[in-house]
Amino acid sequence: MTAFDDLMAYQRETSALGQIAGRLGWDQETVMPRGAAPQRAEEMAAIESVLHARRSDPKVAEWLDQAEPGCEAGQAQVREIRRSYERTIKVPADLAKAIARVTSTAQGKWAQARADEDVTAFLPVLEEVVALKREEGAALAQGGNIYDAMVEDYEPYTTGSQIAAIFDEMRPRLVALRAAVLDRPAPQALERAFNETDQMRLSQKLATTFGYDLTRGRVDKAVHPFSSGSGSDVRITTRTNETDPFNCFYSTIHEVGHAAYEQGINPSFALTPLGCGVSMGVHESQSRIYENQLGRSRAFTGWLYGQMIDVFGDFGIADADTFYATVNRVHNGYIRTEADEVQYNLHIMLRFDLERALMAGDLQVRDLEAAWNDRFKADFGYAVDKPSNGCLQDVHWSVGLFGYFPTYSLGNVYAGCLYQALRDAVPDLEKQLAAGDTSCATGWLRENVQQHGGLYAPREIIRRASGVEPGPEPLLAYLERKFGALYGL
């Protein structure tokens, strides 16, 4: 056994324990009894303590110094283990354990506060989360920018300033497109109830249509849809709304994009740093291209229209063209996950600016609701009507995911680049999608993105796959072309 072999054996055990922690999180959001929350917080804290100790063990540093990987993948393994180790040793074990405990507790309090429309019930525990995350950020930054240290967990080698520059480039064209579209008559909306059991049945079919392997996964319901796990156990959740089946269908397709990424990674990378998605931005590129460029295309919605008639009968939409416009209807709304493609990134920019202010100490938690409501009114032109449509709508801050939100829009940017290349690579893409066949599209993504896992840095994998330097122009051009045609601009 060489030092590299010892390092990788140890890493696989650590990764396996991390997967167990992830499964506890999945259970907490799906089937865990509500009364188990305090005990689960202790369980999560205990396993985080074990993981932190393993990740910061001095023998990892010794193996890293002695390791001599003989191939590109081995070199990437060492690079990523070293990056993780150097970050972990900066964070005190007691702090990591405290964060795990309080975020587990905060998640349950957030869900209850959201259900009760009671922001004040959530703010005390959110203050604890923010204080602990700022402490962690300061430890990681070591005198540098705290928010940059947070972003590094989700989008390595990227800073808040770089993200802000991308958003500044995107915002004017998004705002102009939004204004132009909303100045035109809105397409027909759905106006009847859709049985929620039937929604889940069609949701399962959509999952397999997009290549989700249900022998290594499952579809459940949760308050906030998510994907969890990697390798041979990758689970997704969705949600249902009796009057809005698109919420269920496109949440499912979105989460399948995440799950397909994890299921598509080279099996030899399993339970190693390369055995999961390289960043949340690249992860979102998969979920967003599955959901939007493929799932909301004219070709695929034509197929979906037929499927919905088979399941629900006549549901009041006259033909496939009308249905395409309904699926892509731009409309006022509060919820990020239900936002149309034109407005989605504006929701992310709001969150990005607020969480940067929270991490910098420029915004206090007690003022968060007012700051959110003021910013929303300024950006969208109407007032937030209730907390569950405002600052309580997302789970992310309750579980300490500061620096995560901007990766959603980075994922859209990356998806724009990938879709441009995909169309060139699969000339008859629309014909295939019209038949409900996504295999060539998802196969191209598996070959060019998914199989590599964490082998390459985020921007490098997008550059390799798309042949262009990642930037917002392909996304903006796609949005202007699509919605310009839909709304006759």
TrEMBL record:
Entry keyword Hydrolase: yes
Species in which this protein is naturally found: Ruegeria haliotis
Gene Ontology molecular-function annotations: carboxypeptidase activity
InterPro entries for the chain: Peptidase_M32_Taq (IPR001333)
EC nos: 3.4.17.19
Function recorded in the entry: Broad specificity carboxypetidase that releases amino acids sequentially from the C-terminus, including neutral, aromatic, polar and basic residues.
Keywords linked to the UniProt accession: Carboxypeptidase, Hydrolase, Metal-binding, Metalloprotease, Protease
Catalytic activity, reaction form: Release of a C-terminal amino acid with broad specificity, except for -Pro
PROSITE patterns noted in UniProt: PEPTIDASE_M32
Family membership noted in the UniProt record: Belongs to the peptidase M32 family.
Broadest EC class assigned to this enzyme: hydrolase
Protein known as: Metal-dependent carboxypeptidase
